[in-house]
Structures
1.
Amino acid sequence: MITHRRWLRAVGLFGLLVTIYFLTYTGQAITSDESLLFDAAHSFFQNRTLDIAYANTLRPYNTLPGDQVVTTLDSEPLQAYLSVPLLWIAAHVPGIGMMQTAWLFNIFVTALIACVLYYFGIQLGYSDNAALIVALVYGLATTAWAYSRLYFREPLFTLIILICVYGLERWRSSFDNGKFRFLPLLVAAFMLIVALLAKQASLLIVPMLLVVAFPRVRLSRRSALILLGVLAFLLILLIGYFVIGSRLGIAIRFQDRFATLDFSYLGAAAAGYLISPGASIWAFSPVLLLSFIGAYSLIRARRERYVIAVLVMTITFVVGYAILQGTNWIGGKAWGPRYMVPLVPFIAILLLPLAESILARRVKIATLAVIVGIVVQSVFVQVVGLMVPLDAYPNYLLSESIALCPVDKAICASDLAHQIVVWQDGVWNPLYLAPIVSADQFDTPSPIAWIANSSSGVVIPLSLLTIALSLVIIAEPRKLSRILVLSLSAGLVALLFFGMRSFYYDLRYDGTNDAAWKVLDSLDAQLQPGDTILLNDPSTYLNFFMNYYKGSESIYTLPYAPGERSVPDQPAEIETSNLDGQVNTYLSIMLARLSPKSARWWFISQYGPYSQGRLRPTEHYLAQHYYYGGEVVSQSTARLVLYDPTHAPPEVVPPWPAQTLSLDYGPATLVGFDLTRGLDYKAGQTVPISLLWHHEAWGNLAPFNYSVNVTILNSAGVTVAQQSGTPSGGFGLMTTWVDGGYYRDNKALVLPPNLAPGDYPIWVLVFDWRNSTNLSVTGENSAGDHAVIATIHVK
């Protein structure tokens, strides 16, 4: 009966926290670490790799081994693996986004941590109510709440090590009572090995685990069993480290990290983590200050094991992260000390004696008022962190830096040496502490999803329902418990489903962009196995496709081109007439490695021929080095262009084309062509053809940008495939051709999938698009206004 009651309370606690966390859910990446981790999770879901495809531009260019196109995740992958069920749901349920759904991960994880903490308190001998209070305090009055909305690995790591310690506690307590329970020890060892896949810092908890695991020694025989258990535990750890760790490259990363230890930030980090007003554990979770009272009570009661354990864990984490992270000890953009998040539930354990004293009414009214005040303040700190975007704080520091700049304001805007920065003033100066500054930024647009998307009419009523059901279950109903649990489960599913659907067309994901949706709809209708999607750069549609694309073919983001103008009609970063110099150095390697792995490329760009002041070097590079298959979607702000990924012949001559011709069209002579894949094809295949033009003079024609039409016809003269337009994918304007110059025009013609077997001639025409008239052509196999240059055979 007691077990059933506790299970009900845990269910109610889980439902309550999931609902509250969903009320503050943002559903979007705030840091690059989150984007990289999601990218790896998506790649693992899509093709069982950890490739960084979407977000590869967040990693600097380097030479990758073999034929690897992009780098892989350079951190422990467990969260990527465990996110797959959420991504599967998002991919198969219409109206919910991929990225938005992945951001539910830590909502569930953090609620589970609170449930484990509840059972932990009971295991330590405290009452159900005291354990429940501490679990709620952890869930709502510490940074755990703020991290439930982020996609960091810290919550998962926290859950794993908390289960590990809970297992050790159950094993040791049973051992102290004269029993040897193997299962809890096995669970603890397994979770420790699993922790290696979550965070490198898993080894930092080993000293604390030894404190928890070491039983009270009474008999020499028991001493031998203790030693045996500890050795077995360490043996399992070592096996896991060297077997699993080495297979995943984790061991190498550990060795590399420990080979470059940096002690220079130890003092600054230790002071920051432990006593600073702007970066310490207590500054962002003031309620944990009450743990000192609990620790004092435990010491007086001679139950100091967890006081020692928490102290040891605090020391190892503070020293370990200070040494391992060095300059990055503060953890980047986050709410509070990110690397100290796993410490929080263990410090919260020290609140248990205080909660028990309050329930037993052993605390004076004045003291109780102070305790309640600290709890309320701690909850308020979390609310500030949740309601205000994390960007508001660094943006404020930057604006203050510029406003108070003692030198040139442009220097202060770009040089960290002249700025107010988080890891200095933000740690110690009361004017620039994150909780204080953020509290002053409440007028900043809220990052909370239902507020940003005006979805209160959907989310609030369902949330009130699930909160009410959760509270009823927590209140220990004697009847209808099964019905209440089923009702809560249905309520949570309804809340998440309808809530996520109400956030779907999120403006922060460009969810109302009709042009982007037309591109995506076209892709969904035409993608085939082996196709690859290429984004022009990460500036415009990256988040849109990360959230809304649900296909099984990979999307790669191409790197920024330094030859593109970031501001129209302003100089680019690199000014050169050499196209290869205008694109990113990595592009040629990336495309060369991607080419043999792709059947077709679908290039997505926010720029077009009429985009004012844009040069489009990446698109130009594709047209010059590969085969242009035409625009599938053409809009002013979103275009979808098809390419055949076969590498085209070089732009320069020699080498000359495999098939030589002499067909004079007036403005240029077609001197030859290459059919890279020969003359034999199957229905549905792409025919890549590269024409080589030679321009001498305009003769009797006025200079004009004529178009080239390459057509494949059947025996009845009906067009079956065609590619028509300005040469070189729109970049080969004939008015720019110089006398005596040679110019390649690479075109890809897609054969219909139901094309009947037979022979099909290829025609080439040059025409004036203003009046749709074809220019006359002279030479072998010419027929007035066109020439037949080859015949392909379809099997």
Note: Residues 220-247 form the longest helix (28 residues).
2.
Amino acid sequence: MAERVLSFEQALEVVLEHARALAAPVAQQSAALLDAVGRVLGAPVVAPRDHPPFDRSTRDGYAVRAEDLVPGSTLRILGSLRAGESWSGAPLAAGQAIEIMTGAPLPAGANAVVMLEHVAVEGEALRLAANRSVRCGEHVVARGSEARSGDIVLPIGRRVGAAEIAVAAACGCAQLDVFEQPRVAIVPTGDELVEPSLTPRTPLTDAQIYNSNSHALAALAHAEGGLAFRLHIARDNREDLWDRLAQGSMFDLLVLSGGVSMGKHDLVEEMLTHFGAEFFFTGAKIQPGKPIVFGRMPKRGGELLPSERPWQGPWTYFFGLPGNPISTQVCFHLFVAPLLRALGGETEITPRFAEAHLAEPVRANPDLTRFLPAELTSAYDAVTVRLVGWQGSGDLAANARANCYCVLPPRAQDFAAGETVRVLLR
């Protein structure tokens, strides 16, 4: 199999091309409003009426005709209006005012609201305070200015969070139509791995480590809206890998960790070829995570061997991620997450980046784009990022101390303190 090692930008574009070409999921489910959090909308949410449905006061104060309330004038207060009430009297006439609370409908005839703090009141008489004024439309949100009846307020493909829940609830939705979640098979590989247990804790030899990657990948997949299935550890032999790949070929996405480097027992790519795999790249010029593999294989259920004619689909996409834990997680954020979002029907799929100023100088690498564990500090007047001291891509403790990855593109000259760099959010 020919090696195809791409730059970071090229590798990401390959993933995004396949992600964008995916058809939106067809199957949908109805979910109760709060059960829809984290899911992807399979049908739009439409405003059932104008929002707001009336001219709404945004302040506690007095509804007035702006042209009447000028310095030296006196208005007569007719009454009071609370949120949830409508004015039942005659429209406001010249020289009149109505006390109004935040959220209440503006009474007919009024065209502005003057704040409580900007007036002086004596009995039923209202005067404008010194050096104050009021303009037509002030402190009023016009009917339908947020949305008109029939407008789409939440489109198909939007991930549901708190803001989307609020909009849906404001439209009277008790449930939402959401896409089915993509099914993700997670396969850790390696003879050295041992599953964590409850009690008693499984004793380890000096050469063994606990399996952390599949737990981390399951958590990451869940956070991106996937249904994660942790398959048994695949040992470094062809029989074990055959069994796991046979299982994995039944899922929408297969994510393996380990076994993709150049070692004698790195068998993942070899075994994938037996399942008719098509490889889009076999490495990316990044640190950590260079040996990443991306491709697709026939999605066949029980039928394992390729047919005589070219396969037309459906496909199971796969990623072979490096076994070092930080490499695994960096590659997930950069490449796996965008494809998983697309498989779930989400429209905003690209990795999430921001910008910050380096807190201290950093050495450059002329060949690799680096994604290094870092701490992003967001003060009001400055956003800075500082690398977390780490011992390489197996340092899980350092990764836990970080809250982002500092992105350092390949270049010859070092990065100076104060220089603007990108950060990969997580």
Note: The mean pLDDT is 93.
3.
Amino acid sequence: MTGDELRQAFLSFFQDKEHKIIPSSSLVPHKDPTLLLTSAGMVQIKPYFLGLEAPPSRRLASCQKCFRTTDIDSVGDSKHLTFFEMLGNFSVGDYFKKEAILWAWDFVTKYLKLPEERLWITIYLDDDEAFAYWREVGVPAGKILRFGEKDNFWGPVGNSGPCGPCSEIHYDLGEELGCGKTECKPNCECGRFSEIWNLVFTQYNQDQSGQRTPLPKPNIDTGMGLERTLAAIQGKSSPYETNLFSPLIDRICQLSGKEYGRGGNTDRAIRIVAEHSRSITFLVADGVMPSNEGRGYVLRRILRRASLFGRKLGLSDPFLNEMADVAVGTMSHIYPELMANQSLITEVIRVEEEKFITTLDTGLNLVEKLFGEASVQGREGLTSEEVFRLYDTYGFPPELTAEIAREKGLSIDWEGFQAAMEKQRERARSGQKLVLLSGHSKGNAEVKGKLTVTHKQTHFVGYKEYNSRSKVRDLITNESSVRSVAEGSEVDMMLDRTPFYGEMGGQVGDSGEISSQKGKAVIINTIRTPSGVIIHRGKVVEGSISVGDEVEAKVDSARRLDIARNHTATHLLQADLRQIVDRRIEQKGSLVEPERFRFDFSHRAPVTEEQLNEIQRQVNEWIRQDLRVEAKILPYSQAIAEGAIALFEEKYGEEVRMLEIGEPAISKELCGGTHVSSTGEIGIFLITSESSIGTGLHRIEAVTGRKAESLIESRLTALQDVAKEVEGSLEEVSGKVKTLISELEAERKRVLSLERELSRRIAEDLPGQAEQVSGVTVLAAKVPALTMPILREMGDILRDRLKSAIVVLATVYNNKPNFLTMVTPDLIARGFHAGDIINQVAKVTGGGGGGKAAMAQAGGKDAAKIDEALQLVKSIVASKISLSSEGKD
């Protein structure tokens, strides 16, 4: 059975059971703001389970495109995928556990003909009802295992939604793939058992606080992983061995000259390239574009990871667009959006990979430089900030940074890195700054999945007007073009003419209102498509709006003015940077919002504080001069000849819009954005930060107008509060604070001296707690709260006194456990390694770490488990000695 045959067999089976077959929804979950990407088949079913929408049938079945970001770093082994297809059958208040279990067992055993002796069932701990139904279909009691909430309670998807206990069907791939332990059963991490089908008995709705309440009617939500199930059917140990991946793997082998199937790092790299190339193809097809946030960040991350591992296979030139062509060729008969968007897919991938390759060598060099600096500074490895910057700025995979660290006997701050990543995910989840309906232009058609809307460019009148009389051309809701939308409906609205600026060129889109005699819509964002159509995204709050209606489009003028002030200020800033810092400076990106703006530019060295102060003074002087701001339409060649600045990567037409500030001009730039009419309208300009965002790239962030005024007020208030605290005037604050800092530093040194004395005294008593394990001296002890530097000093003392020993110290500092391990040279020679020991010990508390053979340190999460972790040390040593003895025998 092929993948196509399995997909069709599943859908036909449930169609015969009176299920309505529904098409896969997009990987971009338009109806669920809690989700980054569609990660399960039930995402599009969720509104039906919650009673928010009426389902087309109470019985549904689908094959859904899915993407899970949690598995990105695991891709490369034999089982993990980011993109996959989920076969699912759903009951919206119709049938429940009995039917779901009976049909699942029938399909797996009678239609797929998987041998029953290889199938195992897992259920939720107290789900006796499910247990009884599995026994009814003939599953032996000994092959029905009970697990807790971690393994057998599903959902919700995102922060809230439907959830409930679940029951899984696992397939035994064979003892030869297992860990060899007698207790090896489903949910063992060895990889012997593959979960092929999850039956979720959706009984509850979980709110944002985690509270669960019973649903009015229980539902069924099942998910069968097509790739895993196909591997079981074809007798393969991995989805990568099936016909779904063979065309991709064959192509990467052709391009690289490598052979798949010999194991090791080559196989891993091939799997990464094959899997990620398929994933990026589907993401771009569904409208996701590379960026540094949200879904675009996910796309950029896996594209760079694929390119990086292609380099390990010897591919130094861009190649992922060729891999995308293979994915389109093998899957577009099921997902026609791939073929419809093929030119866009290959172009986006090619351009993005070319950009990455140009910075990759620089990134690798920066990694080596950072490790060198860490070594010189006496640090054991990289900080979380360094690891995250490598990843966020250069797309440098953290696992590669870790590999380089291990080679050098160094460590990286994984816990801190994960915390930084979680902050990034939270921004992505809450920001929702993506253009969800960003099709690509194909003539005058905007293509979005199966929906095609054809119309002319929108006439933009917003350079001079904030209001306009317009006519509604088209309305789109729930990915469908409609004739009318009623109160409460979210809608994308297209007009014949508009004063609303559509997000473009770094400037965010306008917000405001669109109203007619029949209704009113609040517009929260405006988007401009590549073909010049302006989409007004909002919600109908009164009455209804229909295609053909005469409407008044009214921009939020106060917000627009805030944006305009910031945009004009970016032009002043660039002119000043080129005047004060370096004439060769080039703009590399910008973001213009109502409350702030950022400006990215090329420059090898940091902008000094003196230069920043001079820039701020000069820009404010230009503002006070109230210089005229004027836009001109002229031929591109003439604008360049007159000295206008153009973005290197931007494509311009024959006629361009040039913004000129001052007479004679202090700034000339090609720009389609909205601006003030004179610089005096900006009010005031304040730089809030300057930073490096990569080799040769810097960023300045600033505020103007109302935001600058409020920032000055808040800073002055804060300074006045400090003055009160130090009992001085504003002029005296600086001196008094310096005095306080000096006193605090003296106190810090005194406390440090006391800590050292305390650690020395403790170290004098600890050797008496050492124990002998098969002739090896082992000291595992918990000590009072100490910083890691003091803990290392204590370790040095104990190592020197014990002469030959393994020392493991644990302490709780800032409510988190910290561990230190030291091994003397004679025991290193016997195969003991501090890094190996500490990893096992710290794992008990939910942490990890690493280091050299002589010394390693680690952190944890659960301080209550420190004693349990320390008790493990003796058994680790004993086990090592036992293995060494067996080797000699």
Note: Residues 428-454 have pLDDT under 50 and may be disordered.
